[in-house]
Write a structure and sequence with these properties.
The protein has about 280 residues and is mainly beta. It has no helices and 26 strands.
Length: about 280
């Protein structure tokens, strides 16, 4: 926003870290009112909105009851509209459409324990009105979504709730290859014929020149992933771009000056080691 990057959330309550790509310097903003993590934020005018957000400790984190909003201009946090009790979850995909609505898809209702969902909803930031839409084809959490043109793409992620209270390591194996596509024109979901080549969860995503760039992630192995997987909606196919310098997951990407930027995250499966580096790739 405004040429600066805002990095916030994660385990523990920490200040907002603000990066100026021109001077390549960091400054700090006010911490959120509680620990927040597992969200995909969206920018609404001069505010940053967080839906599908969790708080609390692993593995029984709880979803927030309302939207949390950060206002960079005043360096302040405010509570936004309530989220209906039956639709609260975290680790959801979230994106702002040109129609002015924020769309929220997937997620899990009980931390990393149970209740992965295929739910699809939208909220009008101007009015706070919440609407329930048709479920996505797949249940998944720890997955981003992206809007290109008049379609929403929901990809990556896993079904963490499938471990059924047994060995928590099991859920890393339940990644999902399908790419779910919602057509805003018809109001219907479909599964794209081309699956995600390398199945990971908790990667970062950004759209540049009409293509989705999905970076990093975690899955079955101990190390995080470095791969950049690029989806071209026109060609209907995936390709690979330059890999990350440092494998990471549990963070997100932003797009600025035709570059894809990614910072911090975890360098291995799970929550450690926590990284402090930032890198970018000119597309």
């Amino acid at each position: 926003m405004g040429g600066k990057f805002y990095l916030f959330g994660g385990r523990r309550v920490q200040p907002v870290d603000i990066f100026d790509p021109t001077t390549q310097t960091w400054t700090h903003g006010s911490p959120p009112p509680m620990e927040v993590h597992h969200f995909q934020p969206v920018i609404v005018d001069r505010e940053i909105w967080m839906l599908g957000t969790m708080t609390g400790e692993f593995p029984r984190e709880t979803p927030l009851e309302n939207v949390l909003i950060y206002r960079p201009d005043s360096d302040s946090w405010v509570s936004g509209p309530d989220i209906p009790a039956g639709r609260r979850r975290g680790a959801s995909g979230c994106a702002l459409h040109a129609d002015g609505w924020i769309y929220v898809v997937g997620g899990i209702i009980d931390g990393h324990w149970s209740g992965t969902q295929a739910w699809f909803d939208r909220i009008n930031p101007a009015t706070g009105v919440w609407e329930i839409l048709p479920d996505a084809p797949n249940k998944r959490d720890h997955a981003p979504c992206a809007i290109v043109g008049d379609a929403l793409y929901f990809f990556g992620g896993r079904e963490s709730g499938r471990h059924n209270g047994t060995d928590l390591d099991i859920f890393f194996d339940h990644t999902i290859a399908d790419v779910d596509v919602y057509d805003f024109t018809t109001g219907h979901w479909s599964v794209h014929p081309e699956p995600l080549p390398i199945e990971t969860a908790a990667g970062g995503a950004g759209v540049i020149a009409g293509k989705i760039h999905y970076v990093g992630g975690e899955a079955y192995r101990a190390e995080a992933f470095t791969e950049m997987q690029i989806f071209d909606p026109i060609a209907g196919s995936w390709s690979f771009g330059a890999p990350l310098n440092r494998a990471r997951h549990g963070t997100n990407c932003c797009v600025h000056d035709q570059k894809l930027w990614i910072a911090t995250g975890s360098g291995a499966r799970g929550g450690a080691p926590e990284l402090t580096s930032i890198e970018c790739l000119k597309i």
